[in-house]
Amino acid sequence: MVFQVSEDEGAKIRPREETTREGILRLIMERGPISATELARLAILTPAGVRRHLVALEDAGAITECEKPGQREARAGRPARYYVATDAGQNAGATSYHTMANAALDFLRENLGEAGVAEFARRRERALVARYRDVLGDTENSVERLRRLARALTQDGYAASVRDVPGTQDGPRHMIQLCQGRCPLRDVATQNNFLCAAETRAFHELLGVPVQRLATIASGSHVCTVTLHANSV
User: What is the pTM for the complete model shown?
Assistant: First the structure.
């Protein structure tokens, strides 16, 4: 979070408002792949206004075009353009903590072996459960529990969203996904994928149902995704 000092209030600190361009990048991380039309609707901007920001973000290397799954089959003619965040976009505003974190984990592995790494993973899992358990509250509504978790993850920088798996909404096997469009731990998790496994186990404990990890940013996907049965949460 970026802070600014108010001249009128001396040393009082308050968060800076998100700029329009930062908001568009956040939406791309949360909802990508996403079209300019959908971005305009969500950001309450004209299509031309959104495209100006998209051009600037592309020029800065923060986003890139991609093909949305099923796009070619959906319609003939020129397909709409869809956007996802690049590695540079994922790291916007990030610090260089990962060098020290990777060194610390290497030291742990060298001196305590895999048993030490496994214990660290268990502690990481417990820490995640402790952080988000109260956020879920006592509601038993499946979608609401997942949405609460997504909102809390977004506040922690994960750009999370909840999505239906296309084609399953009306059937008995309605599937939903928790998608994280940004991973603050990406540069550490790339070398230490046990962090992703610990997160998956934490989500399982928080939601009380099996969750399946489909993709991670650390392994090269543009979004971290877990899926679960909507009717079983």
Answer: 0.69
